[in-house]
Design a protein that fits this description.
The protein is an alpha/beta fold. It is built from eight helices and six strands, in the order E-H-E-E-E-H-E-H-H-E-H-H-H-H. The chain has a six-stranded mixed β-sheet with strand order 2-3-1-4-5-6, sandwiched between helices. This is Indolepyruvate oxidoreductase subunit beta. It comes from Anoxybacterium hadale.
Length: 183
């Protein structure tokens, strides 16, 4: 699977929790994180898991699932999705630095393009997180949706979330996970 977003969205935290959970479930897991140097840059994590995995790196057309924390990032990485793969996309715009400085334009009709190209689940994780009381938990909302979609129910996600999130934010993140899981 491929998790993509913009620096500052919590993509790395979600991938860390996911990777730990998969390891605890007994899978062989390989993970490769690629991050921009600062907030507003591109972030991607490639995660492969199974009985035996030799490399985290996937080429174009190899990802079973793309989880996009920002919708333009799904479009940027769509060529990595295998035929018949699925996209879980946050209906959220967080312009990257090139867009912020006017070097690029934010594309129009992103969700429509994604829905025409692949099986796409659109989640308004930002709205859900805001309704819970903390918009920064949208990454955990998406994690919950991913866990449900991949049927990874045998893992103690509550313990992993409570262990990995910032102290004092355990309960709201657990609630965010449960909301995402129910979508």
């Amino acid at each position: 699977m491929l998790l993509v977003g913009v620096g500052g969205q919590g993509t790395i935290l979600a991938s860390k929790i996911l990777t730990e959970g998969l390891l605890k479930a007994g899978y062989d897991v390989k993970c490769r994180r690629s991050t921009a140097c600062r907030r507003g840059g591109n972030v991607s994590t490639q995660i492969r898991f199974g009985d035996k995995v030799y490399s985290p790196i996937m080429g174009k057309g190899e990802a079973d699932v793309i989880v996009a924390f920002e919708k333009m990032e799904a479009l940027r990485w769509i060529e990595y999705l295998k035929q018949g793969g699925e996209i879980v996309v946050n209906d959220f715009e967080m312009p990257t630095i090139p867009i912020q400085i006017g070097a690029e334009q934010y594309p129009q009709g992103v969700l429509e393009i994604l829905q025409e190209a692949a099986d796409t689940v659109v989640i308004k994780a930002g709205d859900i997180a805001r309704d819970l009381g903390n918009s920064k938990t949208m990454n955990v909302v998406l994690l919950g949706a991913l866990v449900k979609a991949m049927r990874l129910d045998e893992i103690d996600w509550e313990a992993l979330i409570r262990k990995n999130v910032k102290r004092g934010f355990e309960e709201i993140n657990w609630n965010a996970f449960k909301e995402g899981y129910q979508i």
